[in-house]
Amino acid sequence: MKIACLQFSPVLGDVDNNLTRADAVLAKANVQDLDLLVLPELAFSGYNFKSLQHISPYLEPTTSGISSLWARTTALKHDCVVIVGYPEKVDISPKWPASPEYYNSAITVNKDGETIANYRKSFLYHTDSKWALEGPDGFFDGEIDGLGNVAIGICMDLNPYKFEAPWSAWEFAYHIIHKQANVVVLSMAWRTREDVRSYSRQPKEPDMDTLAYWLARLEPVIRAEQKGEIIVVFANRTGVEDDAVYTGTSAVLGICGGEVKVYGLLGRGDKELLVVDTSVRPKAKLVADPRPSSSEKSSSDTSKSSRSGSPASSASNKNDNIDEILNTVTPISPVEPMSPHAYFSTLGKKKSKSHEKPPTIKPPTNLDASVLGSSFDRTPTPFPVPKAAANTSITSPVPIPPPIIPSKPSKPSTASNGRPLTPPTSPCVPTPSKNLFSSCIPKI
Asked: What spans are recorded as compositionally biased (Pro residues) (predicted)?
């Protein structure tokens, strides 16, 4: 499968020039034989709007605005599936007689230029909650020709709901497992916690802390004993909008057998098309708690609590092939729900010396009621037609040490307008028992 992420720096409200910028990146890459092209969240309007009045001139009719037209034209030109984020306006109609509705959405167009999905963001961040409604249909999943069973989310969907749900709810990760998706797409406008000066010093370097956080939020998928590889596409943007500095680091990863394979990764400031072919050898891999052989399983159960994992490879031994091991993934179990910047404030803290083995748990089988809550009853988006759920059983992931969830978790401190990863300060939060990645990871 040949996948591309178009990472660029759209200017807030400059739609026409943003379209030109995206076309220029595509033209420069001169890519052929694509299967999937993914653009960032609110790709052509920009993201950091302060109010409904601010974004109002850039709202687009459902699947028929300038973003949708660009997606169709590009899909036909490159003979591929295209996913683009856009600000959606649902006009007053007999079905919606009260008032217009507004959503942070992503349109999916097939190779024939036909709209096959219009996903509306389920979990809103503080910025888009000022003008958008939560999508009523839940996270998207459905069969797409040439790709298979696809799960789609938008940025904040990866986080705990409103930063109030327990970290271990892993809503989007369990959705991937429950729907048995083989391709996962996240269209993003993810912010960094660093200021623009420090962040712009190494524009070609990926933000490995951000990548570590994204993978931490997919931990159940990494631990799951699924059949076959799951391709995960993080399509992020770069650039600056007022106080918002975006983290770039778009990536295409493969998850299989406890390993995270790196097929491609952009720098934080790169403005280019990341193109990868998942049929060829990955550039690197991250090892996550390697599975013991059948003869070792019985003895390994008694030693898991004291196992510390393999150290990261040294930079001097770094090679551009699959044999490179960047780090060893270990479970992350914060005591309380936390936002990305709260998570990052724990990375530099000293690890606990306790080796006490916590009780193990299995993910709930009834995800709608047990994971998302009885009040969060979500069903798949109606098109494309989701895969028939003839076999609703799922393979349970390897048991994950549970966090201790307080009865009334405190809401983490976050910026009023920003994306995750850009707090003015790093609040004090409980230190996770283990980190998914070391804060110092060799460069790819």
From this structure: 421-430
